[in-house]
Amino acid sequence: MHAFGGPEYTKGHGTQNDFVILPDPDGELELTDERVRALCDRQRGLGADGVLRVVRAGNLPDAPADVPSDVWFMDYRNADGSIAEMCGNGVRVFARYLVDSGLAQPGDLPVGTRAGVRPVRTHDDGRVTVEMGQAKIFGESATTVAGARVAGVAVDVGNPHLACVGDHDLDALDLSTAPPHDENLFPDGVNVEFVRPLTAGEVRMRVHERGVGETRSCGTGTVAATAAALHAAGQTTGSRIVHIPGGTVEVEITASGSTLTGPAVLVGGGRLSAEWWQNP
Ligand SMILES: N[C@@H](CCC[C@H](N)C(=O)O)C(=O)O
């Protein structure tokens, strides 16, 4: 057996939005953009949509001041190395990792993110519920698909989204490149959801994620999609079952916040090669 000798990792996913989890309680790993890109690369690395570093908030210099220092902080990176404020599927997988590795007790626990602390509840059946905060609709906008304008609403779920609700032919959508967006409304880029209402209370969605590309699920995206679907139906509160290519999640939006419930799976883990980590 090779003694790989590099950092520990675990691979996990939430509705097939997949992550490499790096435990680093003291914030000692030098997590460069290049290392993140290499880890997420599906040919030269482990392959993932993003990286979740597990660090005590007090040991991460850029953790927001309102996150208590002893809270476990999800230092999230997109596959291209960029930092995002929030990742809903990531929080579920992160909480599953904390519980399964003995860093937290099952039940209710807080997870620190760049969008603030997110209260989480782990369930016995493997699902995890995350309190996602308010999904704020802050404007109307549009993108273009195959030369045609597609209208949507701008939604802030801690990170930015353009959620387009309509009678889309989701199977025919080409999301191999990023749908164009209004740079004035979304100066830091945007995650774009195409949402098709099904029967009452259910929608289907595909997503192109900022810093990643098309993914099989996006937790914050499902919350944005639900807020947009409710808005299109003239409502501000309610719930939706959201079907994404990687599975199904449940979203509820109330007057004061929102919740996301879905599965969180740990696949396995080991150690990276120390040599690869030095020069990935
Ligand atoms: N997959 C995530 C969202 C990850 C961040 C996003 N790509 C961004 O840049 O905002 C989720 O499950 O919410």
UniProtKB/TrEMBL annotation:
- Which pathway does this polypeptide act in? Amino-acid biosynthesis; L-lysine biosynthesis via DAP pathway; DL-2,6-diaminopimelate from LL-2,6-diaminopimelate: step 1/1
Active site per the UniProt annotation: C87, C87 (proton donor), C218 (proton acceptor)
- Give EC number(s), comma-separated: 5.1.1.7
| Entry keywords, A to Z | Amino-acid biosynthesis, Cytoplasm, Isomerase, Lysine biosynthesis
- According to UniProt, where does the site described as Could be important to modulate the pK values of the two catalytic cysteine residues lie? H161, E209
Q: Which InterPro entries match?
A: DAP_epimerase_AS, DAP_epimerase_DapF
UniProt keyword Endoplasmic reticulum present:
no
Q: Which Pfam families match?
A: DAP_epimerase
| GO CC, any one term | cytosol
Its recorded reaction(s) are: (2S,6S)-2,6-diaminopimelate = meso-2,6-diaminopimelate
Which superkingdom does the taxonomy of this entry point to?
Answer: Bacteria
The signal peptide annotation in the UniProt record is: none
GO MF terms held by the record: diaminopimelate epimerase activity
Q: Where does substrate bind?
A: N17, N78, G88, N89, N159, N191, E209, R210, G219, T220
- Keyword match Amino-acid biosynthesis: yes
Q: Which GO BP terms, alphabetically?
A: lysine biosynthetic process via diaminopimelate
Q: Which Gene3D superfamilies match?
A: Diaminopimelate Epimerase, Chain A, domain 1
Give a short account of what the protein does: Catalyzes the stereoinversion of LL-2,6-diaminopimelate (L,L-DAP) to meso-diaminopimelate (meso-DAP), a precursor of L-lysine and an essential component of the bacterial peptidoglycan.
PANTHER family in the record: DIAMINOPIMELATE EPIMERASE, DIAMINOPIMELATE EPIMERASE, CHLOROPLASTIC
Q: Which HAMAP family match?
A: DAP_epimerase
Subunit (UniProt) = Homodimer.
Please report which protein family the annotation says this sequence is part of: Belongs to the diaminopimelate epimerase family.
What the entry lists under NCBIfam families is as follows: DapF
Q: Tell me the protein's name.
A: Diaminopimelate epimerase
Q: Which gene encodes it?
A: dapF
